[in-house]
Amino acid sequence: NKSQSIPLRNTQTHIDGNSVKEISVGDVSTMLDKDTVLGILTGAGISKASKLPTRQDLWEKFDRPSAVSISGVEEDPEYIWSVIREFYREQHELCGSINWIPSSDSHKAIALLSRLLTVPAIITQNVDGLHQRALWSCFSNHSYSKSVIKAPRVCELHGNMSKLYCPTCGAECWGSAFSRSHGTNRAPTCEFCHAKDVLSVILPDVVLFGERVGMEVHTEALSHLVESTAVIVSGTSLDVSPAASLLAATSKHAPIIDFNTASPCSGLVDYWVPGDANVTLRELTQKLLMKHYEW
């Protein structure tokens, strides 16, 4: 019975982070069972172990309105490429490439959770594509499941940095443009427009400040969260829309569990698992693996 295995959400208004109940990984493992429909929402914090900066890291170095707002990009489309180069700088220095960024242990644990439980989709604020990389690796290994199952979709609320487009002709471009831009101070330009003697800076297909999240991905993310019987959140402070509004719309019987180092500041969270999510999420998958073969 789901109502017995998963506690009801605390529907009282949270005043501060102290009103969130602190629980252990073992407690979460007890909450989840083979009937759980698990919603997952992630943010940039889970990619820090992959040597990618958070938005707070970036805005210490760049002027956000100039760099990634609609008006800023329209005025100076090359400036956003300074931000992109900084986003990938540490990985480029470590590996000499940005094509093989490793998924973190959090990404890998979430991918494994998607094999052990029913996870319709992974909803993320991230634009790095590392969830897809972890899912591909996990779901190509069939040793974790008694049957072949399909990987969940990744709902990228803010787009994907590796998808590029030309705002002039609309052509889609892919990751090779990143490699061309590294080691230079110039933004990559559209080859199709260049052939017509038109200089057009290509842009990443991400949601800029001042833009709305696409209705299709928003509707899909909302539908998955509404049908969830429990939700795990990690790597986000939930202070950016639409993540917060999406969680607010989840069913009242679905507890929201935050895996984060810092105590949650959002009044939407019911339970907090303190510690490094790379450790605690991996520990959760180990406990669920033991239960999985008993189900």
Describe the protein.
The protein has 295 residues and is of the alpha/beta class. Helix content is 37%, strand content 14%. The chain has 13 helices and ten strands. Strand 5 and strand 6 form a beta hairpin. Mean pLDDT is 85; it is low at 1-6 and 11-18.
Secondary-structure-derived class: alpha/beta
Any idea what the radius of gyration is? 20 Å
**Distance separating the two termini:** 14 Å
Question: For the residues shown, what is the average pLDDT?
Answer: 85
Taken in chain order, the helices and strands follow as HEHEHHHHHEHEEEHHEHEHEEH
Strand content: 5-15%
Beta strands, count: 10
Strand order of the largest sheet: 1-10-9-8-2-3-4
Task: Report the major sheet.
Answer: 7 strands, parallel
What is the count of helical runs? 13
- Percent range for helical residues? 25-40%
Low-confidence spans:
1-6, 11-18
Overall shape: it is elongated
Blueprint (SSEs and pairs):
Elements: H1 2-5, E1 21-22, H2 25-31, E2 38-42, H3 55-59, H4 64-68, H5 70-75, H6 79-95, H7 105-116, E3 121-124, H8 130-139, E4 153-156, E5 159-165, E6 172-173, H9 176-181, H10 191-194, E7 203-206, H11 215-226, E8 230-234, H12 243-248, E9 256-260, E10 271-274, H13 277-292
Parallel strand pairs: 1-10, 2-3, 2-8, 3-4, 8-9, 9-10
Antiparallel strand pairs: 5-6, 5-7
